[in-house]
Amino acid sequence: MKLITLIEVGNLDGLFVMIIAIILVVVFVISLVVAAITKVIYEWHNKKKFSTGQFWKTVLLSMLIGGLISGLVCGGM
Questions:
Q1: CB count, 10 Å around CB of 31?
Q2: Are 66 and 30 within 8 A, CB to CB?
Q3: What span, in angstroms and rounded, lies between the C-alpha atoms of 18 and 16?
Q4: pLDDT digits (tens, 9 = 90+) for 34-68
Q5: Do 37 and 43 form a contact (C-beta atoms < 8 A)?
Q6: Cα torsion 46, 49, 54, 55: sign
Q7: Is the pTM of this model over 0.85?
Q8: Is 32 exposed, middle or buried (0-12, 13-18, 19+ CB in 10 A)?
Q9: pLDDT of 5-30, one tens digit each?
């Protein structure tokens, strides 16, 4: 027998898109928390401020790392 993937079954495109959207939202929220913690640590004893650009770059970097981890977990090694 041939194995059938999720997309080959048919009419499950919405489910596939929802799973990807949920993963993106969860990674985005976790990235916001990581960036907020990074901002607090950066500004704790320094007089320097954590700029908006640095904040969003931290979110983006955290999302990229989260995407790599998610791909490793979902796709396998």
A1: 21
A2: yes
A3: 5
A4: 999 999 999 988 888 989 999 999 999 999 999 89
A5: no
A6: positive
A7: no
A8: middle
A9: 655 666 677 777 888 889 899 999 99
